[in-house]
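Hi V.,

You were right to ask for the full record rather than a summary. Here it is.
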Amino acid sequence: MRLRGFDYEISARMAKKINTSAGLLLYKFQASEIYFFLVHPGGPYFTKKDEGSWTIPKGEIDLNEDELDAAKREFIEETGYLPRGNFIALNAIQQKGGKIVKCWAIEGDIDPARLVSNTFDMEWPPKSGKMQTYPEIDRGDWFTFTEARKKINERQISFLEQVIAHGK
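Predicted structure:
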């Protein structure tokens, strides 16, 4: 449908993509226990936050981008690493702000000390006129299921549970 040159079909697809993120949940088995790789957001708002603020590496899906391709791209941008293997589609979740997060789990390994994250610029302190550069992800780490449940954004706990259920 067109109205004054505006394509509402494309606009609707863009709105869907903008309100949807895609990410990967990396996991591994060590000493008969499952571990999950989570990342901590960079920037001044998360500096002193820990429990409940960690997340899967994820980000927005570009218009016309395949969702799994977006998840892989975001993982690379936030960690510098691309896991390879069989990606397991998990059920999507909706975060408190309304954003839908689609996730794929994959078994793999990454050294948190070798993370390379992209950066973003923001004015900090607010209204100071000073632009600061921050890493999108300031650190990553491996956690047992019990530890990960405490660290991860509460709405993303379902991803951990789905991986556990998939392995049974």
